[in-house]
Amino acid sequence: MVLALCIGDFHMPMRATDIPPQFKQLLVPGKIQHILCTGDLCVKEVHDYLKGLCSDLHVTKGEFDEGTYPETKVVPWGDLESLAMLQRQLDVDILITGHTHQFKAYKYEDRLVINPGSATGAYSAITPDVKPSFVLMDIDGLRVVSYVYELVNGEVKVDKIEFTKTS
CA–CA distance from 130 to each of 20, 46, 96, 118, 145 (Å)? Predict the structure, then answer.
């Protein structure tokens, strides 16, 4: 079993002051093996926080990030056909995407697309009312169970999505 945290769109401190304390209680060092971050950390402190959770941190460059993170843009934002095309080009079974600030998961063409949403609930131009969210993937061979954590009215709600790669 391998745990991978999918998280992003923090926009700190411009659009949000911090990660919700309810999430910080759940995200502790030593439990997660990989972090896949969709970008828009905006400040070094967020990078350092994630690195403190897990040393295997992979970040893509968000719209407001500075530095040398790799960057991939999909237009239009969150468009399933465009994401599926990128997924085929990269030849990946699971594609992690961001930028819309809304959690979304699609099973499409025997593959999975996950947008973990905004970890802080930062608003966006296309989504003013955002629920803070992240995804924790439990990877076991060809089977992945994704746990979706959303903050709703101050409480953490957890949903589960199962995906098994067809050989």
Answer: 13, 19, 19, 7, 24
Length of the chain counted residue by residue? 167
Q: Is the dihedral of CA 37, 41, 44, 46 positive or negative?
A: negative
Strand segments, DSSP code E, in the chain are 2-7, 34-37, 57-59, 94-96, 103-108, 111-116, 133-140, 143-152, 155-164
And the tokens for 13?
Answer: 């401190």
pTM of the model: 0.87
Euclidean distance between CA atoms 158 and 155, whole angstroms: 10
Q: What angle do CA 83, 100, 163 make, to 5 degrees?
A: 50
- Alpha-helix runs per DSSP H in the chain: 21-26, 44-53, 80-90
pLDDT in tens, 32-73: 999 999 988 888 899 999 999 999 999 887 777 676 655 566
